[in-house]
Structures are given as structure tokens and as C-alpha cells.
């Protein structure tokens, strides 16, 4: 420790520069987000032009302009339909799913202090699968329930079970994690059980395809619902960004810093579970986005959550738009489930993250 | 900061700026904390007057840390009260409590790559309104606290790459920027070298805030604390000034060790010198000669 004068440094050297830098942090976030939004727009537009029916980038803008009350696009109704009813909602749903899953992953990794946490760690996706299978294969609901509704119900049920288990076993962060893993195992087993005991081959294939993630059924309804929940949850998470910084030190340290641990944890768990449930029920369980992309975003922006959360969401959105475009075009005319494509990209990226983690700290933070 | 040894009297270093008069009167009244019916802290009553440095000492598992966590408000006592200036703290919100009490925890994992500066700045969060960013004033507090704790050079390094001792100093800096009226420190000298132990405790003592410290080193406790409380098996067994508390009889009774306690002429504080046990237990080999040794002997004998 350096010898330190008796009077406290009223204006420490370098202090103004530091204050300026502090002020810039806020501006930096805005710059990052603007860049991200531009990148997203520049991803969605070309993604729409790629595919069997050749569509030029200019056509996309003309159709969008027409729908938003501008001049006639001059395209045939069929081509207009491809842009407006198929590819645009699909690209937007990909963006919403990518953003939402990455956001949930970033929040849960910090909240649960586990770099391997992802949106599915709360058992939501496996619950959704069981719900979907129950509707499609067992005919639960007698045809009145859609696959999405069944998936959502299953997700809510599974998350409820996780909360209950976590609460009865002490309610600490590691209990939440363990309960999530338990629920995930239980519902995966239930799904397999139902599929193997009662499904025929065609049903199985349909369900499997959905389980692996599919944006093919995207419509404006899903986009609107997903985007609405995404923005609400993003707002909630941003409000708790300083608390999330504190949570990376554990719940006791967070409490000592003035974070209402139980309330914040419950709020964030509910918010992320709701968003995940909505996304999974409209697009299936798309893996790895929520696990890997938060780490990529951290490398870009650093770990402070005020900047990390919006950037993670944007990185996730751009990533999934491109992966989905690849998934629907690479094996043309067949389509690869987008969850398969994300994992094919995600696993190597994940290995890199693991290796970097080992080099940096020699261990995985507990 | 002056090393205490150089002054020859009770340490009186330059006091870092903290809000004037920001020291509270802590009173712990008959606090009990139990897990599964087993009391970890059993009816402890304790007092720290404004500005005092009060030490909690005792053997492993005597409930020191649990008591400290009850004082911090992290644990809610099964019975008893924690009072700040006579007012019960049970009804304080987490944020209100964090504006008064700062903690330097024992476990210092975490950070996820946050820089030291960011970690220390987190200490300002209890004082912030909703969505309030870091101001120039916050930056000044952070700078000052890092300078006080000797962590200025660490400011831009990732927290999770620091050594144990460096982390300890950064966490103290974080507690300092909270501008607490009460500072709760759990074995703050862990991982620190001698020099930094002395510097840290001198700094804590010089703060206007009341401080409550869990300490293992009885000599440091004797020198730096105004009063000591001794815990054993969750109960309070002695309290008073270091001279009153640290006696050879108490060390024998509570820790089960032989020791000589003298007032050191240079420091004026009681100094403990530990002595070897009166009748050293004979060290016996618990493990019989290995099978290999036995066989070798047998084989040799057989061959003979």
C-alpha cells in the first residue's frame, strides 16, 4: 500500500478523465445497440432474399413499404406473399427467438452463478416438449389445444415444479439449478416414454422436428407475441442489471450490497421462464443460442449487465437469423431443423469458450 | 498510512474521508440463530459504541461468522434483536440496511470478469436511485477507496484474476465506498501478508465507522480492537478490553492451549505467546508395518 497523505484526495489525478469515461459508458451502450440494430436490419433483409424463389433486396423494401402504407410494390401477389407472409415473419421470429434465448441465457448464467446455465436449465423446454407431445400424440385437449398451447402449458407446469422443488429444498441458487436439472430429466423421460409407447412413425417425426426447433410455422401472431414478451422481459432485466452484477458474487454479497435477493431472484426467474416458454412454444427448443451467445457478447462488451444484456439480445438475434437462413437453404429443398444447425455451430463455439475459461482461470467458477 | 509498529502507541493513521458522524451504536440483544434445532449462536448480547472497533474471537465452529451474518442482516435470528442506535433493524429494507452496514466477506469468488473498478463501484449501488448511473462523485469515491486500500494499481484488472490478498483489499474498498456506519469484517486478514494485515486493520481502526471484526489472530485482535467478545460453542464466554479478556486461564479453557500473556512494552497491548502442550502426546505409528515389509522379512528368513 502506498503512503497516503493525511487529507483525502479531493481531486485525484486522472479523475476527470475517469469521470468522462464513466459518462461515456452510457454512450458506448447506445453506440453498441445502434450498431447492433443496423447489423440486424442488414441481416434480416438479405436473409429474406435468400431461398428458392429469387427475390431481390429492393423487392423486400418495396413490399414492406407497401404494407406500411406506401406505394404499390408492383410484385405479383405470390411473390409479395412469400415476402410478407413467409420469409419476413420467419426472419423476425428468428430474430426474436435468438434475442430472447440469448438474453435468458445471460441472465440465468449470472443469477445462478454458472457459466453453463442456459434458458432450458429451468426445465422449461423439456416441459414444453412433454406438453406438445401430450397434445399431438396423446390427443390431450381433444383437438381444442394447439401444439403451442400444449407446449406452453407443459413449460409452465415444469417451471412450477422447479420453483416448488427449489423452495422446499431451501430456495438457494444452487437448489434452483439442481431442481431445474431434475425437472429436465423427468420431463425428457416422460416425453420419450409417450413417444415410444404410443406414437406412430409419422407423428414421431413431426414431434421430433418440432422439438429440434422449427421456425417454419412462423406467422405474424407468433412474432407479435414473442416480440411483446421479449421487450417486456428485456425491460425488467435491464432494471435489475446492477443487481445482476452483484449476484455474480453470490447471494450474500448481493444482499450486503442492498439487493433484495429473494424478490429479485424470483422476478428474474419468472421473467426468463415466461419468455422461454413463449419462445419454445412457438419455435421449439432451439439449443445452444442461450448457452454460447452470452459468452460471445461478454467478450465483446465486458460483463457489466447494463451493456451486456441489450448487446447479447442483438447478437443472438443476428446469429439466429443467419443460422435459420442456412438451415432452410443448405439442404434445399429439404429443411434442416434450426436447432440442429445452432448446435452444429454452437458446439465448436462452446468448446472454444470452455478452453478459454480453462486458460483464464484454470477452473469453472462455482 | 502508517504502520502501527512505528508509532508505539495505539494506531492513529490518517482517517480516510467518510461522511462525518457516520458511526452507529450497535447493540445485539440476546440473539439466537439455529439450524435444524441446533443453535449456532446461543443468546449472545454484544455492544459496539460509535466508532469502536470490536473483535469477535473464538475457536473454529464457535459461531463467530454466524453472529456476524446476523448483525449484517443476511441471517434472521431465531430470537433476539439487532439494534442500530436503539432501533430494531428487522424492519429495515435490504437497501436501507446496505446504506448503513457494509460487509467484507470471507469468500471472495465471483465477478465473472468485472474489473476491479467495476467491482468497487458496485458498493455505490445502495445509494443510487433507480437507473442512476455512476457519477463523477462515485468515480472519486472509488478512486479514493482503492488508494486507501493500496489497490490503485489494480483498478483495471479483472477481479477474478487477482490473488486472495488482492481480492480482500478490493472487497474492503467496495465496503468503504458504501460509506457505512457499521463495517462487518469476517477474518479480513486472511490471505494477507503481515504488512497488509497491519495496514488493513490500521485503516479500519482509523475509519469513523463502528467496526465489528471476526479475527483469528489474537495478537492482532488485542492490538487493534477496543474490546473483545469471546465465543465458544455459540455462547459468549467472556468480554471486555483485550487486557481483561486475553488471560492464560481463558486461552486454556476456550482454546485448550497453554500460552503466556504479557503486556508488550512497545505496543502496550497484551501479547500471546503459545507454548507447547504440557505433556506432548506420544506420536505412535497408527499404521502397522506394510505387508511388503513383512513379506520381505519373511522371505529373507525363509531363504536363510
UniProtKB/TrEMBL annotation, chain A:
Q: Which InterPro entries match?
A: ABC_BtuC-like, ABC_transptr_permease_BtuC
Q: What highest taxon heads this organism's lineage?
A: Bacteria
This protein's UniProt keywords: Cell membrane, Membrane, Transmembrane, Transmembrane helix, Transport
Keyword Kinase, does the record have it?
no
Q: Name one GO molecular function term.
A: transmembrane transporter activity
Similarity remark: Belongs to the binding-protein-dependent transport system permease family. FecCD subfamily.
Q: What is this protein called?
A: ABC transporter permease
Question: Which organism was this protein described from?
Answer: Streptomyces cacaoi
From TrEMBL, chain B:
Under the heading Pfam families, the entry gives: ABC_tran
Q: Which GO terms describe its molecular function?
A: ATP binding; ATP hydrolysis activity
The top of its lineage is: Bacteria, Bacillati, Actinomycetota, Actinomycetes, Kitasatosporales
Write the record's keywords in alphabetical order, separated by commas. ATP-binding, Nucleotide-binding, Transport
Write down the InterPro entries for this protein, in alphabetical order.
Answer: AAA+_ATPase, ABC_transporter-like_ATP-bd, ABC_transporter-like_CS, P-loop_NTPase
* Top-level taxon in the UniProt lineage: Bacteria
Where do the ABC transporter domain residues begin and end?
Answer: 26-258
The identity of this protein, by name, is: ABC transporter ATP-binding protein
Amino acid at each position: 500500500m502506498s503512503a497516503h497523505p493525511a487529507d483525502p484526495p479531493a481531486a485525484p489525478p486522472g479523475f476527470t478523465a475517469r469521470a468522462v469515461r464513466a459518462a461515456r459508458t452510457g454512450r458506448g451502450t447506445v453506440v453498441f445497440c445502434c450498431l447492433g440494430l443496423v447489423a440486424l436490419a442488414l441481416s434480416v433483409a438479405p436473409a429474406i432474399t435468400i431461398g428458392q424463389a429469387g427475390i431481390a433486396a429492393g423487392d423486400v423494401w418495396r413490399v414492406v413499404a407497401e404494407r406500411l402504407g406506401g406505394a404499390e410494390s408492383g410484385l405479383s401477389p405470390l411473390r409479395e406473399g412469400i415476402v410478407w407472409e413467409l420469409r419476413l415473419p420467419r426472419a423476425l421470429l428468428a430474430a426474436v427467438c435468438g434475442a430472447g434465448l440469448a438474453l435468458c441465457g445471460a441472465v440465468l448464467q449470472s443469477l445462478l452463478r454458472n457459466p453453463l446455465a442456459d434458458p432450458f436449465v429451468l426445465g422449461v423446454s423439456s416441459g414444453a416438449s412433454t406438453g406438445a407431445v401430450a397434445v399431438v400424440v396423446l390427443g390431450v385437449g381433444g383437438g381444442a389445444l394447439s401444439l403451442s398451447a400444449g407446449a406452453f402449458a407443459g413449460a409452465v407446469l415444469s417451471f412450477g415444479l422447479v420453483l416448488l422443488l427449489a423452495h422446499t429444498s431451501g430456495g438457494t441458487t444452487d437448489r434452483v439449478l439442481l431442481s431445474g436439472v431434475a425437472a429436465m430429466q423427468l420431463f425428457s423421460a416422460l416425453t420419450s416414454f409417450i413417444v415410444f409407447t404410443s406414437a406412430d412413425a409419422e407423428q414421431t417425426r413431426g414431434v421430433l422436428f418440432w422439438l429440434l426447433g422449427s421456425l417454419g410455422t412462423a406467422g405474424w401472431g407468433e412474432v407479435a407475441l414473442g416480440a411483446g414478451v421479449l421487450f417486456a422481459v428485456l425491460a425488467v432485466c435491464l432494471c435489475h442489471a446492477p443487481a445482476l452484477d452483484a449476484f455474480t458474487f453470490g447471494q450474500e454479497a448481493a444482499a450486503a450490497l442492498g439487493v433484495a435477493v429473494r424478490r429479485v431472484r424470483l422476478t428474474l426467474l419468472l421473467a426468463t421462464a415466461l419468455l422461454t416458454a413463449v419462445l419454445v412454444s412457438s419455435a421449439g427448443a432451439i439449443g445452444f443460442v442461450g448457452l454460447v451467445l452470452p459468452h460471445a457478447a461478454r467478450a465483446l462488451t465486458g460483463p457489466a449487465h447494463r451493456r451486456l444484456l441489450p448487446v447479447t439480445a442483438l447478437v443472438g438475434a443476428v446469429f439466429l437469423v443467419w443460422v435459420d437462413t442456412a438451415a432452410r437453404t443448405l439442404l434445399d429443398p429439404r429443411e434442416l431443423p434450426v436447432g440442429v444447425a445452432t448446435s452444429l455451430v454452437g458446439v465448436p463455439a462452446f468448446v472454444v469458450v470452455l478452453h478459454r475459461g480453462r486458460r483464464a482461470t484454470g477452473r469453472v467458477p462455482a | 498510512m502508517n504502520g502501527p509498529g512505528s508509532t508505539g502507541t495505539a494506531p492513529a493513521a490518517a482517517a480516510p474521508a467518510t461522511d462525518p458522524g457516520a458511526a452507529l451504536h450497535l447493540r445485539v440483544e440476546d440473539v439466537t440463530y439455529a439450524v435444524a434445532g441446533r443453535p449456532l449462536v446461543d443468546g449472545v448480547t454484544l455492544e459496539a459504541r460509535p466508532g469502536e472497533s470490536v473483535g469477535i474471537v473464538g475457536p473454529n465452529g464457535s459461531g463467530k461468522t454466524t453472529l456476524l451474518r446476523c448483525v449484517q442482516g443476511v441471517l434472521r435470528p431465531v430470537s433476539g434483536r439487532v439494534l442500530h442506535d436503539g432501533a430494531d433493524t428487522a424492519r429495515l429494507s435490504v437497501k436501507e440496511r446496505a446504506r448503513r452496514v457494509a460487509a467484507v466477506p470471507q469468500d471472495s469468488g465471483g465477478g465473472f470478469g468485472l474489473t476491479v473498478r467495476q467491482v468497487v463501484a458496485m458498493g455505490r449501488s445502495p445509494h443510487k436511485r433507480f437507473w442512476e448511473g455512476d457519477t463523477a462523485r462515485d468515480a472519486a469515491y472509488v478512486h479514493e477507496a482503492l488508494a486507501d486500500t493500496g489497490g490503485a494499481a489494480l483498478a483495471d484488472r479483472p477481479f477474478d484474476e487477482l490473488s486472495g490478498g488482492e481480492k480482500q483489499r478490493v472487497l474492503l474498498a467496495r465496503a468503504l465506498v458504501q460509506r457505512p456506519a457499521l463495517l462487518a469484517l469476517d477474518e479480513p486478514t486472511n490471505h494477507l501478508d503481515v504488512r497488509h494485515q497491519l495496514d488493513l486493520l490500521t485503516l479500519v481502526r482509523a475509519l469513523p465507522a463502528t467496526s465489528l471484526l471476526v479475527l483469528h489472530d489474537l495478537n492482532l485482535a488485542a492490538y487493534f480492537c477496543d474490546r473483545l467478545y469471546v465465543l465458544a460453542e455459540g455462547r459468549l464466554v467472556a468480554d471486555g478490553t483485550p487486557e481483561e479478556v486475553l488471560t492464560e486461564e481463558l486461552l486454556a479453557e476456550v482454546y485448550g492451549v497453554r500460552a503466556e500473556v504479557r503486556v508488550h512494552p512497545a505496543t502496550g497491548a497484551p501479547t500471546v505467546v503459545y507454548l507447547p502442550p504440557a505433556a506432548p502426546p506420544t506420536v505412535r505409528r497408527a499404521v502397522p508395518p506394510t505387508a511388503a515389509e513383512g513379506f520381505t522379512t519373511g522371505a529373507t528368513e525363509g531363504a536363510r
